[in-house]
């Protein structure tokens, strides 16, 4: 029972983090503070690694909870996709020197 609570708790926490990261990414992008997107990208990678390790542990020791593991794959894919978008949009334009 505790294994199921930990499994679903990590999934729900990471879904909440994904929504929060998406919200703040849009917020900072609209305000043209693109440098902040890199921080959210790094945290998204850490979140995806936590989910990947969770999936690895639950598949290795097989506590019978992984029947919904496609949800973890979806969340990891969304986190990585959002990270790529944040990395692309997080670049600051180069300043041109006035002649």
Automatic annotation (TrEMBL):
Protein name: Integral membrane protein
Keyword set, alphabetical order: Membrane, Transmembrane, Transmembrane helix
Lineage: superkingdom: Bacteria
Annotated transmembrane regions: 6-30, 37-58, 70-89
Source organism of the structure: Tetragenococcus solitarius
